[in-house]
Design goal:
five-stranded mixed barrel; Rossmann fold; 3 domains; 12 helices; OB fold (Dihydrolipoamide Acetyltransferase, E2P); 10 strands; 404 residues; alpha/beta
Length: 404
């Protein structure tokens, strides 16, 4: 039986060194700079880390002259270089050739790390999202007052519903202080302003331009807001941490206005459609009852003469009822038209509630009219039957008389 080879420490370390240095002779690593030190030799030593691991890094003095600037603690950078093993201590480290300070890769890494962190805490859970009002009266925009985004939103919102109230809370949307200004604006609005929805918006740009909306504290403030918040930042392809923390994400500022503000013409068309459906329902019921009345009349036509007067009376009642219901329908239709016109002039939510109440009253009155009609018909029919029995030959024979 062959026993496994016994390595010396030097042999094992040399083997590991050869494997790592051959396999990772050219590599790019993204992370955050920490533990930066620069001794008298001029070489730069620091640690490159992320949330779960770290690696020692060396930037020799001869390579530093090719950099646009020196690395600093807390920076997100991308290092390009090779893996090396320092045999006396058995440490492996990254030997850096160049550093990318402004690459989108570093920012994208920071974005993904923060996204995973906040998602793990439940900040993006669907269950925590607040419902947006169907008919908002007041919308507050947190944005730059001079940007194209606010102009697009206001133009479309007022076109769809001129009665909508819009407020602008001016903030910087780009730069070092932008995130804190936006965060403070949300806090101030929650404490001092009565509004239905807060909209965070700005136009498109690079990941650096939109970076203020990837701030961790801003995301937490959005999550804890008692007022629903909609994020409409950048173009449809742009995503920020604010998008995930907000109660709703809109693809663009103009698309946000279309999502939040109801279209007045659409509301009017809906009211008209409901009015037509109600009138159709009432007409169908009337035709049904008129058919029943006609059937009763045909059945009574072949009866004896004493029933003729009852038939005439039924026709008279039917005619009066038809006139009464027709008048009621005309009145109801006029009210519906008036309510529709008022809806165009007044607040849609209030007008809709009033219209629903009127419809309920009309239905109730129709129900009472139908019930009263049926009772009268039943009573008239019972009297007709009694009179028919009184003059019937069969009734005479039942009393013991014979008909000669």
């Amino acid at each position: 039986m062959n026993e496994p080879k016994i390595f010396s420490v030097t042999e094992l370390t040399t083997t590991i060194k050869n494997v790592l240095e051959q396999r990772y002779s050219f590599i790019r690593v993204a992370g955050e700079v920490t533990n930066l030190r620069k001794p008298g030799s001029g070489h730069c030593y620091f640690t490159l880390k992320d949330n779960h691991a770290q690696i020692k890094t060396v930037l020799f003095k001869t390579q530093q002259r090719y950099l646009e600037k020196q690395p600093q603690n807390g920076q997100m950078i991308i290092c390009q270089g090779r893996i090396s093993v320092y045999e006396p201590r058995g440490d492996y480290q990254l030997i850096v050739d160049t550093i990318d300070f402004h690459g989108a890769g570093a920012l994208q890494l920071a974005f993904e790390q923060l996204k995973v962190k906040l998602d793990g805490e439940g900040l993006f859970d669907r269950e925590s999202k607040k419902k947006l009002p169907l008919f908002p009266r007041h919308i507050t925009l947190v944005t730059s007052p001079t940007g194209a985004a606010v102009h697009d939103f206001i133009t479309i919102a007022l076109k769809r519903l001129p009665q909508i109230r819009l407020s602008i809370f001016p903030v910087k949307v780009q730069g070092e202080t932008a995130a804190k200004e936006i965060q403070q604006a949300i806090i101030d609005i929650n404490h001092h302003l009565e509004t239905d929805i807060i909209v965070l918006t700005r136009g498109g740009g690079s990941i650096e331009d939109l970076w203020a909306f990837n701030d961790e504290q801003l995301a937490r403030t959005i999550h804890h807001s008692t007022i629903p918040i909609v994020s409409a930042v950048g173009h449809e392809i742009d995503f920020t941490i604010a998008d995930f923390a907000a109660d709703l994400r809109a693809p663009t500022p103009s698309g946000c206005a279309e999502m939040l503000v109801p279209d007045r013409s659409g509301l009017s068309a809906r009211v008209l459609e409901l009015s037509q459906r109600i009138c159709h329902s009432i007409t169908s019921r009337l035709e049904h009852y008129q058919g029943q009345l006609s059937l009763y009349g045909q059945q009574l036509t072949g009866a004896t003469r004493p029933l003729d007067s009852l038939t005439l009376r039924l026709d008279h009642i039917s005619e009066n009822l038809e006139h009464a219901i027709t008048a009621l329908i005309n009145t109801s239709s006029a009210r519906l038209r008036e309510q529709s016109n008022q809806l165009k002039r007044n607040d849609p939510a209030l007008s809709l509630r009033s219209l629903k109440q009127n419809i309920h009253e009309i239905r109730h009155r129709l129900y009472l009219a139908e019930k009263r009609l049926l009772m009268e018909k039943e009573q008239a029919f019972a009297k007709a039957c009694d009179l028919l029995d009184a003059v019937s030959p069969l009734a005479t024979m039942a009393r013991g008389y014979a008909i000669a």
